[in-house]
């Protein structure tokens, strides 16, 4: 009897764990991304705390679209770092070629999850590149390739900032007695995450 190939089945927990593990392996801390979120949002919400920033980053990282982008970008950076891509793509990613914009397109897939405000946040943080994680990732003298990762980190911060803005607006409307719920409430997010895990386990 011929061997029967077992159909591929996604392990959502493994994908989520790998996403966080690879960010850590590449030297990116959640607290550093939170500093970017604080930079983007504190002037609008002076009482914003680092705990809130971290919480919203965690919610962003729980989404499969974001996990897919993180894993894809980091793998391409690693392959370029090891010289394993074919020319001319190898040289373009290795040198962060200015006319190569696929890294930013991948970042857009992250910010798009939270609407158009994410693009504004991303554009600002990408141009500013404040001291901290983004400047470190852009340091070409390190010998590391972070062509995709620097944009990914900026996009995660932008997405978390957008999530905060949407939720703060919902909170204001609730205080005014207006019938509104945030598009990405904790309850909705947790329900969707649980449903996705259930579907994957049944696949």
TrEMBL record:
<feature type="domain" description="YutG/PgpA">
    <location>
        <begin position="36"/>
        <end position="165"/>
    </location>
</feature>
<dbReference type="InterPro" id="IPR036681">
    <property type="entry name" value="PgpA-like_sf"/>
</dbReference>
<dbReference type="Pfam" id="PF04608">
    <property type="entry name" value="PgpA"/>
</dbReference>
<feature type="region of interest" description="Disordered">
    <location>
        <begin position="164"/>
        <end position="203"/>
    </location>
</feature>
<dbReference type="InterPro" id="IPR007686">
    <property type="entry name" value="YutG/PgpA"/>
</dbReference>
<protein>
    <submittedName>
        <fullName>Phosphatidylglycerophosphatase A</fullName>
    </submittedName>
</protein>
<feature type="compositionally biased region" description="Basic and acidic residues">
    <location>
        <begin position="168"/>
        <end position="196"/>
    </location>
</feature>
């Amino acid at each position: 009897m011929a061997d029967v190939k077992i159909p591929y089945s996604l392990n959502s927990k493994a994908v989520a764990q790998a996403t966080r593990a690879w960010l850590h392996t590449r030297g990116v801390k959640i607290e550093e991304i939170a500093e970017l979120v604080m930079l983007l949002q504190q002037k609008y919400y002076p009482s914003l705390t680092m705990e809130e920033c971290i919480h919203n980053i965690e919610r962003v990282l729980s989404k499969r679209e974001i996990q897919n982008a993180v894993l894809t970008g980091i793998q391409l950076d690693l392959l370029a770092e090891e010289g394993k891509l074919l020319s001319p793509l190898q040289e373009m990613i290795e040198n962060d070629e200015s006319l190569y914009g696929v890294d930013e397109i991948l970042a857009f897939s992250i910010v798009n999850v939270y609407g158009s405000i994410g693009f504004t946040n991303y554009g600002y943080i990408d141009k500013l590149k404040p001291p901290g994680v983004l400047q470190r990732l852009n340091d070409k003298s390190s010998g590391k390739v972070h062509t995709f990762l620097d944009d990914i980190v900026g996009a995660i911060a932008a997405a978390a900032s957008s999530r905060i803005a949407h939720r703060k607006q919902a909170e204001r409307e609730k205080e005014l007695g207006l019938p509104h719920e945030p598009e990405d409430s904790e309850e909705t997010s947790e329900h969707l995450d649980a449903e996705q895990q259930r579907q994957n386990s049944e696949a």
